[in-house]
Specification:
With 295 residues, the chain is α/β, with parallel strands linked by helices. It has 9 helices and 12 strands. Helix content is 36%, strand content 21%. Helix 5 links the parallel strand 3 and strand 4.
């Protein structure tokens, strides 16, 4: 096993947290990965992992070495990209982080895979604040305004949230005509998994903006249960338009208070400014910009 392969075995073990998972990614047995890491430790005369029967974690030396290995692979990938630039064909592994709501973008991801079959997508769905540079992501998709100065960004889609309810619920409970009317209704809220806070509904009301206190019938950290409960007539929800497009189209949900919802949210793709802008990353960003535009 050559040095780069041994380095790759170490990186995959560090990122997945086990030799078994690393072996699956590399097409090797867990034993082969473990032996490669042990030989690497022997050659470097340093312990890279704290290991026990339940888990393994990086030592301080292991964390430093992981950062160096990632830089090595970035340089190798950049060199490959330069050699491939003559035909400009996007290819290779693309590691992308998306928010949990990004699971609803899987149809777009499927279209990208069909358009660029030589690009292997590695998607990580999480609402936590990932460190794009340190964790080795090629790019992340996030909502809201970007704030990390180490990252380049591109707005790939803007959208206005929808306030929705089922026809059955509105027939039973009445149609609210202003945001104040929601005080008499059942509201289904999304809660941030990272902060635990209820996400506010984007009503713009001049001086009184943000002062509406909405009842909390229930809350969830994911969008899917809010959609289903709204369809079942359990209350009113505030959801991204792409999450409920088909439900609105087939009449299972209807939008309300549209004229009061004035805040526009946006999707951004962010990527490390220090890294090579590869054909596969350019293809991904351009594709997202084309397919996440408002419909």
């Amino acid at each position: 096993m050559d040095k780069l392969t041994a380095f790759d075995a170490f990186v995959q073990s560090a990122e997945t947290g086990s030799f078994v998972a690393a072996g699956r990614k590399l097409g090797l047995s867990a034993s082969a990965v473990g032996k490669a890491v042990v030989r690497l430790e022997q050659r470097l005369d340093v312990r890279l992992f704290h290991r026990n029967t339940r888990n393994m974690t990086l030592t301080e030396e292991g964390r430093l070495f992981l950062e160096r290995c990632r830089r090595i692979f970035e340089e190798v990938e950049a060199a490959e990209a330069e050699l491939a630039r003559s035909n400009r064909t996007p290819r290779g592994r693309l590691r992308i982080s998306l928010p949990l709501v990004g699971m609803l973008l899987t149809p777009v991801m499927a279209k990208f895979m069909r358009a660029w079959p030589e690009v292997q997508l590695d998607l990580d769905f999480s609402d936590r604040l990932v460190d794009v540079v340190e964790e080795g992501f090629d790019a992340v998709i996030r909502t809201g305004q970007p704030s990390d100065s180490r990252l380049m960004s591109r707005n790939v889609g803007r959208f206005k949230l929808n306030i929705v309810a089922s026809p059955d619920y509105l027939a039973r409970c009445g149609v609210p005509e202003t945001p104040d009317d929601l005080a008499q209704h059942q509201c289904l809220h999304q809660r941030s998994p990272s902060t635990g806070k209820i996400r506010p509904w984007p009503f713009a009301r001049g001086e009184r903006q943000g002062r509406i206190i909405l009842p909390e019938r229930m809350s969830a950290t994911a969008v899917d249960p809010l959609i289903e409960l709204a369809i079942q007539g359990m209350g009113i929800a505030c959801l991204p338009p792409f999450a409920v497009r088909s439900e609105i189209a087939d009449g299972r949900l209807v939008t309300i208070l549209d004229e009061w919802v004035e805040e526009t949210d946006q999707f951004n793709v962010l990527w490390p400014a220090s890294r090579q802008f590869t054909p596969k990353l350019r293809a991904f960003i351009d594709f997202m910009a084309e397919h996440l535009r408002p419909q």
